[in-house]
Amino acid sequence: MLALFAPRPYAEATNLDDQTAHLTNTCLQTHSSTFVESSAVSLFWSLDLPKPKLDRIFDQICQILGETFAAVSSESTSFQTWANCMEQFGFDFLVDEECNAMLLEANAYPDFKQTGEELKFVVEGFMEASVAMAAKEFLLKDCVTEDIEKSADNACRDLVEVFTHKNKRQW
After folding, report:
1. Which of 5, 60, 123, 150 has the fewest C-beta atoms lying within 10 Å of its C-beta?
2. Residues with Cβ < 8 Å from 122, sequence gap 6 or more?
3. Separation CA 162–CA 80 (nearest Å)
C-alpha cells in the first residue's frame, strides 16, 4: 500500500487556482521543476506514524473496502466482474489529522506508474502475487504440489483479502 502526498501542505482554500496543495497524482507533479519522488510517494507501513495509528488507518481502509465490494457486488447493472477472473482495482483514500480514512474514489484501471521508479518493486510484487494467486486458484487447482503452494503463499503474503464473491467474506 502506498501513501501519496501533495507537494505543498493543505491550507484553507484561498487560491483554488493553485492545485499543488490538493493534487497527489504524481503524474501531474512530475512536470514541476521542484518534484522530488521520495517526497511524493512512500510505503504506507514506512510512514513516520506510531504503529497503532497505522493499524487504525489500515483497519478502516479494509473495513471500507469490504463494505464497498459487498455493496456493489449485488449491483449487476453497474458492477460487472468477470467469472473466474482476478481483477485489480485502485482505491484512493484521504486520511485526516485524526487518522480517519475516507474513500475518495475507486479506479477500474489503476495507474501503476504512480509508484515511481524507487517503489516500482511494490507493483512488481503485487503483479507477481496476483499471478501466483490466480495460478494456484484457477490453473493448478488439481496439481498443486507443496513447493508450488509454498511459492504461491510466499508471493501472496502481503495481500489482504477484504471481500470475495465465493464466501462474501468481509473484513
Report:
1. 150
2. 2, 43, 115
3. 18
The tally of CA atoms less than 13 A away on the side-chain side of residue 126 is 16
Instruction: Provide the grid cell at 85.
Output: 477472473
Q: Which residue has the cell 465490494?
A: 69
- What's the pLDDT tens digit per position in 68-86? 888 887 776 666 666 667 7
Q: Which of 171, 106, 121 is nearest to 2 (CA)?
A: 121
